[in-house]
Amino acid sequence: MEASAVLCVLGVAAILGLYIWRISNWLWFKPKKIEKFLRDQGLKGSSYTFVFGDLKEMVQMRRDAKSKPMNLTHDIAPRVLPFIHKSISTYGKSCFTWMGTKPLVHISEPTMIREILANYYQFQKPRGGNPLTKLLARGLIDAEADQWIKHRKIINPAFHVEKLKHMVPAFYVSCSEMIDKWGKLVTKESSYEVDVWPHLQTFTSDVISRTAFGSSFEEGRKIFEFQREQAELIIKAAQSVYIPGSRFLPTKDNKRMKEIDREVKASIKSIIDKRVVAMKAGETINDDLLGILLDSNYKEIKQQGSSNFGLSIEEVIEECKLFYFAGQETTGNMLVWTMILLGQHTDWQTRAREEVLHVFGDKRPDIDGLSHLKVINMIFNEVLRLYPPAVMLRRLIHEDTKLGKLTLLAGTLIQLNTLFMHHDKDMWGDDANEFKPERFSEGVSKVTKGQATYLPFGGGPRICIGQNFAMLEAKMALAMILQGFSFELSPSYSHAPHTIITLQPQFGAHLTLHKL
User: Fold this and answer.
1) C or N terminus of the chain, fewer CB within 10 Å?
2) Which residues are listed for heme binding in this entry (predicted)?
3) Model confidence pLDDT, tens digit, residues 378-401
4) Rounded-to-integer distance, Cα 435 and Cα 512, Å
């Protein structure tokens, strides 16, 4: 009896000891071993701190940076990513930091960046993080490996240039509504201060509602209002430290997020169901993004002879949610920073307006003319260099991997710091932090010498599928704005770029408008 009790105690002690060892290994011994492994290869970086890594310092530095605006300069990295700026300044452009217990290796070598972006099977997007963000958008942006290939193949037709031509009228109508609102605020004899940021957000959301859902535009607009509220709630949650399981707590915000998710899915499904009925009745439905997506999906299933090769209704719903998120965020950000920079550098605003008036006069911009706007193209490229929508790209290594001269262990996070690459004086010259669109006068490949140093839309096979859509929409909007108004920065403008998913003006974009 006593022997059994002793064995029982020993068994419990052994299990407890094993458990303690595993926890200790996870929280301390394994990170320290990886740290030594990285240092032995010549990488410098911060020392691992128990459990939190660099998270506490990262959060505090970000909070301090956001507490006040900065000087009107384009050297924005110290404010936008203060901890990474400090780390790179201390340890070099290629270094490592800690996301909790996981090492985060910062890669800056262009050849290594190209390899990472090209090998999407080997370097996949990290899972985990705050699962609430998945309520906002999943779809193509979240898919990996074979799933991503399937999604991309089916969605591709929606963004072919020939299809985009048919969406230009929607760009025009939505922009006309915004221009008309501004026209009512300002007369030719006076000027008027406007925070253009919310106006541009409304414009880009209306464009997505029209181009995604066409005749169901009003229903689409309601869906966007839900998505905008969802984004605000998710951003609020994402700004605090995520506690696993907290999304299941019956808080007011959690309940509302789930309600919105149900409403959005039900609304999109209702629109999809109507389109499917129309498609089965032989009606043409491929005149908007949703119609093209459903048509492409149907053809793929029919060609392959199995629904396994197509998207489910749930997956189509997620792609529609992604249309809203990605379409509104990318173009809205590009336009707001363009207006801010042209409000500061009015000489380039004048050059852009002269080009627009030379090509279109006071007539409605069309797709052929938009493709010939060289000065505006240079301006957009420079704006995207200085203020890229996504300031970083992150990947996770799933198995031990050789990258250049480095050997990286499974579980290592890799970060490509787009913002720092775009402002790197070694790559762009001593004027890297200055607004000089002329650097793109001979195109992107000429100035980058073909290297992976300019990534406003990502790169490799996973480059943003909607970049042509975004550029065309932005050109239409800027051309129409320049036809009707001149503008400069208002004295009340506070320069405060910060990231909430994408790079945005924290205190808005206050400009003084003059009607032409």
Assistant:
1) N
2) 464
3) 999 999 999 999 999 999 998 999
4) 21
0.90 exceeded by pTM? yes
State the DSSP string of 60-74.
HHHHHHHTS---S-S
Q: Sign of dihedral through CA atoms 304, 307, 312, 316?
A: positive
**Using CA atoms, how far apart are residues 158 and 291, in angstroms rounded to an integer?**
9
pLDDT in tens, 171-218: 999 999 999 999 999 887 888 999 999 999 999 989 988 888 876 778
Domains (range + CATH), the chain: 33-130+390-455 (3.30.43.20)
Positive or negative torsion for Cα 454, 455, 459, 465: negative
Q: What backbone torsions phi and psi does residue 68 show, to the nearest 5 degrees? A: -155, 155
Q: Which residues make up each annotated binding site? A: 464
- Kind of pairing between the strands at 95-99 and 485-489: unpaired
Question: In Å, what is the CA distance from 500 to each residue of 234, 238, 333?
Answer: 10, 9, 11
Q: Which residues contact 313 (CB under 8 A, 6 or more apart)?
A: 269, 272
- The runs of H, that is alpha helices, within 345-423 are 346-360, 367-370, 374-386, 418-422
Q: Residue ranges for the binding site for heme?
A: 464
Distance CA 489, CA 346 (A): 9
Bridge-partner residues for 511, per DSSP? 194, 489
Contact between 409 and 34 under an 8 Å Cβ cutoff? The reply is yes
For residue range 81-139, what is the model confidence (pLDDT) as tens digits? 999 999 999 999 999 999 999 999 999 999 999 999 999 888 988 875 566 666 666 65
If residue 99 lies in a helix (H) or strand (E), which one and from where to where?
Answer: strand 95-99
Q: Is the pLDDT of residue 291 over 90?
A: no
| pLDDT digit string, tens, across residues 235-249 | 777 666 555 666 667
